[in-house]
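1st attempt posting a full record on here, be nice pls
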Amino acid sequence: MKEASIIPLHPMPWPEVFHLEVESSLFIPLVGATVRAGFPSPADDYISGRIDLNSYVSSNPTSTFLVKVVGDSMIGAHIAPGDLAVVNKDRKARSGDIVLAYVEGEFTIKRYELRKDGAYLIAENPNYPPICIQDAEAGRIWGIVVGTVRSFGA
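the predicted structure (as tokens):
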């Protein structure tokens, strides 16, 4: 039996999505020691193996995708503009999860919080008020944000 879903009356603008390359053969060396942010250690020059970034960011690449973050509403959760949010569509949202949701015609990333009076989408920036979802038609969770990828321009 398949779970019923809601078909929107209006087409939804899908955010820019990047899919993980499941069959990637690109592995990046993983250094076997932790890195101190202070003094560099010459003993840390040993490589312990290689890491596949797809496997690192997702345990289920077929249900995972990336979206580019715009705006600063989640800066308190260390999700910054320009980051790529790793979204897993396979997991069901639990209160406290950071989610990708579709609300009032837009996609947004917020912390999902279930309260007695409804479901809330909470920003991690005090400049943004909580969004209360009291009607199932008013919002939809598309996936759980399970990580972020940030480039410093290298």
